Amino acid sequence: PGTPLEEFFFTSECVTEGHPDKLCDQVSDAILDACLTIDPMAKVACETATTTGMVMILGEITVDGLIDYQQVVRDAVQDIGFDSSEKGFDYKTCNVLVAIGQQSPDIAQGVHVGRDTDENLGAGDQGHMFGYATDETEEAMPLSHLLAANLCT
After folding, report:
1. Which residue has the higher pLDDT, 1 or 5?
2. Residues forming beta bridges with residue 99, ordered by sequence position
3. 7-11, 13-17, 78-82: which has the minimum mean pLDDT?
C-alpha cells in the first residue's frame, strides 16, 4: 500500500551502562538466568520496564521451582551499580512490581507440548529479530550499527 520511498535514512542505536534500556535488558537476563539455574527446561517470556525509582517485570514464566523475583531484580539493580538515591536509583528502596503468570496453554501447545524432537519445537510469539550480514564493514555488520557501537566503547 502506498508508493515505496525512493530515499530513506537508516540509523542504529547503542546504549551504555546505566541507560534504562540497558537496565531492563540486564534485569530480564537475570530473571532468565535465575529460572534456568533451577530448571533448565523453564519457559521464560519476561519483559522489564523501568522509570525513576521503579522496575516492573511482566510476562509468562513456567518454571519447576520457586523464584524470588523481587530479590533477583534488586540484585541485578545492585550489580549495575544503582545503590544510592543520589545516583537517581537505589536497589534497596526502588519499587519492584511483579506481574508474572504461567505460560499460556495455547503458547505451550504451539511451542513445546507434545513435540518430542528439537526439529518439532516452535519459536513462540515473544521475539522478532532484524539483522543481516553485509560487506559494508570487515565485521560483516551494518555500518550504522558498527559506528553506534564504537561510540559506546
Report:
1. 5
2. 58
3. 7-11
Amino acid, single-letter form, for residue 94 = C
The one-letter amino acid code at 69 reads Y
Site of grid cell 545492585: 78
**What is the rounded CA–CA span in Å between residue 77 and residue 83?**
8
> How far apart (Å, rounded) are the C-alpha atoms in residues 19 and 138?
28
What digits encode the pLDDT tens for the residues 110-135? 666 655 666 665 555 555 666 788 99
* Contact between residue 11 and residue 145 where contact means Cβ atoms under 8 Å apart: no
Q: What is the pTM of this model?
A: 0.76
Q: Are 73 and 97 in contact (CB under 8 A)?
A: no
DSSP string, the chain: --PPPS----------TTSHHHHHHHHHHHHHHHHHHH-TT-EEEEEEEEETTEEEEEEEEE-SS---HHHHHHHHHHHHT-EEGGGTEETTTSEEEEEEEPPPHHHHHHHTTT--SGGG----SS--------SSSTTSS-HHHHHHHHHT-
- The cell for 50 is 523501568
